[in-house]
């Protein structure tokens, strides 16, 4: 039924593997703007994530909605991504392990908004000693598109059983795209959407959500048999944080 016995992992870029908040904050700062703290940032959505919050600076939002001003901001953001932006702690080592694993197909599906995003990611990952040419795939889709069709197309391209397919994401739309295509979602709450929003508004099970990149790496290694059990047993942060009820 399936031409491959491998496992498939589709990684997200911004907010899951890449510290996008720090990069966006630096881009705003370069133009003399203040984006606000990360907690408020996670509560904004779509365009407001890149243009700032209405309560902080409504006049700046109107200014940046002008085509030329937004273009300048994106140009600055592109330079920061290529020269300064960082992967979250532990992610680079994980990706190198995934690339080296013979039984795992791994790549990235992204909606990154920088200029020539694939070149941007090539430069960013190269600074972390990762050659993106060694990934099995790297796909950019427009910001307006959902990932559902691309998730399905990628799984079908490699002939992987949905039960052996996984995705990583930081937004509720990533979760919905995974469920819609029969894949298991590794969700994180340190990216564009916070834990409370993911669990309360969109009812995503807290058991699926990692609160840190370290926890995400541990979950992936455990699920994909990358040897984590030889290092330390997996522990769910939600379980660790649960109250001790007698």
From TrEMBL:
Keyword Hydrolase: yes
Single annotated GO MF: phosphoglycolate phosphatase activity
Catalytic class of the enzyme: hydrolase
Catalysis performed (reactions): 2-phosphoglycolate + H2O = glycolate + phosphate
SUPFAM superfamilies in the cross-refs: HAD-like
EC number(s) per entry: 3.1.3.18
One Gene Ontology CC term in the entry: cytosol
Coiled coil stretches, renumbered: none
GO biological process, one term: DNA repair
Record keywords, A-Z: Hydrolase
Protein's UniProt keywords contain Hydrolase: yes
Record protein name field: phosphoglycolate phosphatase
Biochemical pathway: Organic acid metabolism; glycolate biosynthesis; glycolate from 2-phosphoglycolate: step 1/1
Organism expressing this protein natively: Massilia timonae
Record-stated family: Belongs to the HAD-like hydrolase superfamily. CbbY/CbbZ/Gph/YieH family.
């Amino acid at each position: 039924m399936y031409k491959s016995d491998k496992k498939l992992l589709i990684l997200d870029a911004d907010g899951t593997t890449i510290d996008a908040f720090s990069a966006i904050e630096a881009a705003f700062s370069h133009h003399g703007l203040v984006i606000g703290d990360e907690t408020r940032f996670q509560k904004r959505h779509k365009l407001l994530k890149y243009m700032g919050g209405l309560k902080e600076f409504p006049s700046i939002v109107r200014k940046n909605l002008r085509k030329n001003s937004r273009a300048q901001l994106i140009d600055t953001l592109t330079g920061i991504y290529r020269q300064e932006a960082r992967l979250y702690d532990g992610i680079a080592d994980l990706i190198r392990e995934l690339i080296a694993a013979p039984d795992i197909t791994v790549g990235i599906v992204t909606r990154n908004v920088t200029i020539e995003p694939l070149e941007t990611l090539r430069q960013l990952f190269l600074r972390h000693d990762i050659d993106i040419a060694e990934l099995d795939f790297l796909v950019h889709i427009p910001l307006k598109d959902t990932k559902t069709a691309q998730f399905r197309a990628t799984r079908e391209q490699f002939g992987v059983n949905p039960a052996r397919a996984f995705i990583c994401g930081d937004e509720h739309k990533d979760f919905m795209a995974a469920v819609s295509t029969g894949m298991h979602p590794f969700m994180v709450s340190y990216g564009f959407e916070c834990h409370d929003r993911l669990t309360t508004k969109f009812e995503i099970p807290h058991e699926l959500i990692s609160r840190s990149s370290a926890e995400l790496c541990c979950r992936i290694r455990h699920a994909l048999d990358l040897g984590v059990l030889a290092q330390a047993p997996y522990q769910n942060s939600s379980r660790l944080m649960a109250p001790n009820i007698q």
